[in-house]
C-alpha cells in the first residue's frame, strides 16, 4: 500500500517549462486537462472560471508580447487563458481562478505536458481586448502549454523552519 509519497513526488516534480517541442497537443489531451480543471475548489462552489484555448499563431504572438516574461508563448503550441467572472465570485474570484490555474498545470503535468504561468494581471485590459472579453471576465493567467523541450532543475525553496509558525506568527515550529 502506498504511503502517498509517490503523489507528493509528483507534485514537487512539476517545473515551469519555457521551451517546447515543435509538436502539437491533441484536442483530446486539452479536453482532459480542462475537464480536470473543472474540479478545482472555489468559494461556495461558484466555479467562476472559463478557459480560452489559443491555437492561432498570430494571437499567441500578440499575447506573447504583452510583456517581456510572456515570451514562452511564442514557442508554445498553444496557450490556455484562465479567465474569471468577478461578478460570479466578487470576493474570491482571484483565489478561485488561481486554484483552477493550478489544476490545469497539474493535469498537464500528469499527462506529460509542460506549462508556465504567464502573469496577466498587470495587462488585464490588453488581454481583454485581444481575446474580446467582456469587462467582467478577468484574465487571471495565461499558460503556455506544450511538450517540454527542457528539464529545469528545481529552484531553491525556503526551508520549512523559515515559513512555518505554530499557533501565532513568529513562533517558528520545529517539531522534535
Descriptive report:
This protein has 176 residues and is α+β, with helices and mostly antiparallel strands. It has a single domain, classed as NADH Oxidase, CATH 3.40.109. Helix content is 32%, strand content 17%. The chain has a four-stranded antiparallel beta sheet, with helices on both faces. The longest helix is centred in the middle third of the chain and has 18 residues.
Outline of this structure?
This protein has 176 residues and is of the alpha+beta class. 32% of the residues lie in helices and 17% in strands.
What is the topological layout?
Layout lengths: L4 H9 L13 H11 L11 E6 L2 H7 L14 E8 L7 H18 L3 E6 L4 H8 L5 E10 L13 H4 L13
Antiparallel strand pairs: 1-2, 2-4, 3-4
Helix pairs in contact: 2-4
Amino acid at each position: 500500500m502506498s504511503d502517498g509519497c509517490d503523489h507528493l513526488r509528483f507534485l514537487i516534480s512539476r517545473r515551469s517549462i519555457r521551451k517546447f517541442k515543435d509538436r502539437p497537443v491533441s484536442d483530446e489531451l486539452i479536453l482532459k486537462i480542462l475537464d480536470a480543471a473543472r474540479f478545482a475548489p472555489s468559494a461556495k462552489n461558484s466555479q467562476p472560471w472559463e478557459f480560452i484555448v489559443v491555437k492561432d499563431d498570430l494571437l499567441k504572438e500578440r499575447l506573447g508580447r504583452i510583456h517581456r516574461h510572456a515570451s514562452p508563448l511564442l514557442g508554445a503550441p498553444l496557450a490556455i487563458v484562465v479567465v474569471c467572472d468577478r461578478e460570479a465570485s466578487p470576493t474570491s474570484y482571484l483565489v478561485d481562478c488561481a486554484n483552477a490555474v493550478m489544476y490545469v498545470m497539474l493535469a498537464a503535468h500528469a499527462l506529460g505536458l509542460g506549462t508556465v504561468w504567464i502573469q496577466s494581471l498587470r495587462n488585464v485590459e490588453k488581454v481583454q481586448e485581444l481575446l474580446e472579453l467582456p469587462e467582467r471576465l478577468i484574465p487571471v493567467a495565461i499558460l503556455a502549454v506544450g511538450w517540454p523541450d527542457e528539464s529545469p532543475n528545481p529552484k531553491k525553496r525556503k526551508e520549512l523552519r523559515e515559513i512555518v509558525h505554530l499557533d501565532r506568527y513568529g513562533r517558528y515550529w520545529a517539531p522534535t
